[in-house]
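Q: Please design a sequence for this.
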């Protein structure tokens, strides 16, 4: 009898290829259905992985309480969970901050540099063997890797491409997701959100107009997550359509001009140096 994890990994790889084919063929309905299947398969894979952990695990809290997950996981799993919470490409420093705020276990930014290289090496040696890979974001114009930003291979190309407005859009998206997680912790756990989570939300809020109550006086605990969400969403609505169009156009070019590996890890950098120097 085959290992259930192996079977799920094979299924996830098949679904990813089917999604890519459906998207390239313009069959959006089929692609949407396959993505739903992929998300279910990934959740099942996570659940099986958690049951394989050596220590006895207490009854898990609902999905919205990420800090309840086990801490005895590889660094790539910690990064994956932090990125899934943010829902957008992120720099190592932010990923570590999210992990510290919401998840158990240790994760340092220094681990992420070697981790990115290991992910690409693993993919090239055995494409599709893992249920997901951590990969760089792609620049919208040259489709080259933006190595300062990490994404997840199972995200759509549109989500992994970075255009002129994308950094702001992703910042606002992350602010909303962090505020939602803080609100959930306040509502569903006895201790409420951690001090690290409140400090992280504050760092987002101070960079969003109208996100902080006038009487906050520099105190993280005075933040209202719903106010942060409303302020971030208001600005997001201004930029979202333009950013989405830029990302969609870049994703279409990537699907036509890049191979499977380049769609994950970026186009070769040759011929780019002189273009960058001309812009300085």
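A: Design:
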């Amino acid at each position: 009898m085959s290992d259930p994890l192996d079977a799920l990994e094979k299924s996830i790889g098949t679904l990813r290829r089917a999604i890519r084919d459906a998207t390239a063929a313009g069959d959006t309905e089929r692609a949407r259905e396959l993505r739903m299947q992929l998300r279910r398969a990934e959740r099942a894979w996570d659940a099986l992985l958690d049951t394989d952990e050596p220590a006895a695990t207490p009854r898990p809290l609902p999905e919205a309480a990420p800090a309840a997950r086990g801490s005895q996981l590889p660094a790539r799993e910690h990064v994956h969970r932090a990125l899934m919470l943010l829902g957008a490409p992120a720099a190592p420093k932010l990923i570590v901050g999210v992990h510290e705020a919401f998840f158990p276990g240790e994760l340092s930014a220094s681990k992420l540099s070697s981790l990115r290289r290991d992910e690409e090496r693993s993919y090239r040696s055995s494409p599709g063997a893992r249920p997901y890979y951590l990969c760089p974001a792609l620049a919208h114009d040259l489709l080259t890797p933006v190595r300062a930003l990490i994404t997840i291979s199972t995200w759509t190309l549109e989500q992994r491409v970075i255009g002129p407005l994308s950094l702001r859009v992703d910042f606002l998206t992350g602010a909303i997701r962090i505020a939602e997680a803080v609100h959930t912790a306040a509502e569903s756990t006895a201790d409420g959100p951690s001090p690290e989570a409140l400090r992280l939300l504050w760092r987002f809020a101070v960079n969003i107009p109208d996100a902080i109550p006038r009487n906050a006086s520099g105190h993280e605990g005075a933040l209202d997550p719903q106010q942060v969400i409303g302020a971030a969403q208001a600005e997001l609505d201004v930029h979202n359509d333009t950013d989405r169009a830029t990302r969609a156009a870049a994703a279409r070019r990537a699907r036509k001009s890049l191979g499977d590996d380049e769609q994950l890890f970026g186009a070769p950098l040759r011929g780019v140096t002189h273009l960058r120097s001309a812009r300085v």
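Q: Thanks. Anything notable?
A: The longest helix spans residues 225-257. The CA atoms of residues 22 and 30 lie 6 Å apart.
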